[in-house]
Task: inverse folding
């Protein structure tokens, strides 16, 4: 089943609600043992990068997650700060990231094209998706998703970018490197667009 | 392109949904969960639910109701009412809510926003400012900030105070016009424009919308902001018959495109 990694931050309940509606089995995992029956993983996250990394490191689940994702190639999707944690590091903090998708998390506030815009980037924005990607199967044209963030993922290898969005600059809002995915926007709160994306992740 | 947010604002009073006028005369408009279901079907951009009893009655937020709302809600949800501590805000976020708003508690102690931002991230911290035009003989001109359903007035400049809240931890400011509440004759565009220009965080404007044209006027004046409304989405016709509605996506997109084009060419 899908296990949602509950290390102390993130809106776990919103994912459980969404999967319940989709009729897909999902549960939270609070310990390494609770990850034993996982077939797919969701790594949520909100708030500050360092806080999220520190809590994940203290949760006792990180070694098992690394074994599952890097050793056994288990599909994983990081959401919001959970996506940012896939990177090597973030300008928001000092903790190293998981380093599963090469790249760095940067601030809109220091980019010349976005620094004068309201912060955080909040609301519905259009996605420019890579056609044919598994996460976007059966997508309607002009997909839009809900965003709520001040930092963005900048992938080192643009081949890992599955979708971009514009907020002053064009930024990498969905990354995908083999079985490892990261989504900056909130599919759990993006109506039928988000439901389709989570369904594609769960059933592919 | 980032779109303006068109946001229904629902008021909870004695367990039911109500709509007020000038913050008074609550009229029953239905069941909260049923309303959320309708806005799910309509794919509303966000939803704001304010419990207008909690602060006045000095009670804790109704967590059971919030949990039910969050479980049903398929769009981002902002809850407000009775929140006075960062712990309460964390508990509400854990129920599946995206944003927590404070009003009276932020006026009593602005540093609450700092503690909330540390606990739940500043992107989830919303300050709702209830603002009224001064009309008293000796009160002077301009605007005043109110709390406790407009029964308490404070001697603070609303714009300077909004900037202060932004500096200490607010991730969004909601400008709520007391005078225009339920009037359905348009937003206070001048105040909205001043507030937008003074702030760096996203702004949502509430109070006065009676039609999509009013929202178009707001977006033309302010650019990408949240346009929130109560009456517009719960009443229909001159006799205010209760009917929950929300514009179709195409209608909303077309209105926003027109308004943003007009905003850019100003």
Result:
């Amino acid at each position: 089943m899908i296990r949602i990694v509950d290390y102390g931050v993130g809106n776990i309940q919103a994912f459980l609600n969404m999967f319940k509606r989709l009729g897909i089995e999902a549960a939270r995992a609070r310990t390494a043992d609770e990850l034993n029956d996982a077939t797919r993983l969701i790594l949520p996250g909100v708030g500050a990068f360092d806080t999220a990394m520190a809590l994940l490191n203290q949760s006792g689940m990180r070694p098992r997650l690394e074994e599952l994702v890097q050793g056994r190639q288990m599909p994983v999707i990081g959401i919001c700060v959970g996506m940012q944690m896939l990177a090597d590091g973030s300008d928001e903090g000092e903790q190293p990231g998981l380093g599963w998708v090469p790249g760095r998390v940067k601030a809109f506030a220091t980019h010349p094209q976005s620094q004068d815009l309201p912060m955080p980037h909040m609301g519905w924005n259009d996605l420019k998706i890579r056609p044919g990607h598994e996460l976007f199967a059966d997508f309607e044209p002009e997909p839009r998703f809900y965003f709520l963030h001040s930092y963005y993922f900048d992938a080192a290898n643009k081949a890992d970018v599955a979708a971009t969005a514009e907020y002053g600059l064009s930024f990498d809002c969905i990354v995908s490197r083999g079985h490892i995915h990261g989504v900056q926007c909130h599919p759990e709160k993006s109506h039928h667009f988000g439901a389709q994306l989570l369904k594609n992740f769960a059933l592919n | 392109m980032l779109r303006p947010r068109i946001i229904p604002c629902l008021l909870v009073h004695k367990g039911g949904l109500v709509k007020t006028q000038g913050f008074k005369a609550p009229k029953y408009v239905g069941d909260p969960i049923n309303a959320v279901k309708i806005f799910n079907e309509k794919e509303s951009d966000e939803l704001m639910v304010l419990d207008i009893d909690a602060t006045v009655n000095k009670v804790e937020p109704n967590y059971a109701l919030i949990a039910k709302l969050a479980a049903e809600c398929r769009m981002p949800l902002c809850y407000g009412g009775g929140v006075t501590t960062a712990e309460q805000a964390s508990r509400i976020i854990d129920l599946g809510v995206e944003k927590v708003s404070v009003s009276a508690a932020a006026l009593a102690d602005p540093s609450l926003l700092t503690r909330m931002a540390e606990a739940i991230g500043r992107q989830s911290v919303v300050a709702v400012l209830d603002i009224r035009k001064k009309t008293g003989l000796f009160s002077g001109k301009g605007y005043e900030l109110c709390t406790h359903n407009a029964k308490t007035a404070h001697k603070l400049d609303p714009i300077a105070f909004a900037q202060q809240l932004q500096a200490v931890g607010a991730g969004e400011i909601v400008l709520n016009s007391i005078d225009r509440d339920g009037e359905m004759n348009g937003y206070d565009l001048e105040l909205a424009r001043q507030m937008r220009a003074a702030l760096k965080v996203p702004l949502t404007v509430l109070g006065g919308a009676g039609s999509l044209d009013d929202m178009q006027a707001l977006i033309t004046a302010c650019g990408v902001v949240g346009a929130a409304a109560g009456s517009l989405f719960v009443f229909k016709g001159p006799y205010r018959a209760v009917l929950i509605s929300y514009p179709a996506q195409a209608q909303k997109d077309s209105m926003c495109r027109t308004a943003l084009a007009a905003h850019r060419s100003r």
